[in-house]
Amino acid sequence: MEVINALGRRKAAVARVYVSTGTGNITINGRSLETYFPSELLQYVVKQPLSETETEGKYDVKVNLNGGGIKGQAEALRLGIARALCKIDNEAFRPKLKSKGFLTRDQRQVERKKPGRPGARKRFQFSKR
Questions:
Q1: pTM of the model
Q2: At the topology level of CATH, where does 4-100 sit?
Q3: What is the predicted pLDDT for the residue at 31?
């Protein structure tokens, strides 16, 4: 099997994912999954598409990840892995991933700060007199 690539985004994070057959290694920016995401919860989020399709240990995942915070990066990586798995076998994997919501891109972004205000929606304290 050749290398399958996919893109995942969440907030300001962008994950470029390259999937090939292998032993289940996940490499992020040259580091292992456990060192890049020390939190067990974020490791679980990243592995969700693989565990849902029962393909853990069958594919090696190499990722270039930049931008955003750790939570956004983990969710961008989840979307990228799910999209790559759909490219590998669309009929088998797509219904499972779609039902769990792993193929839906979360488009929510931070609202910009408006002029004359301290934040996006907050206003300075009003004084009548």
A1: 0.90
A2: Ribosomal Protein S5; domain 2 (3.30.230)
A3: 94
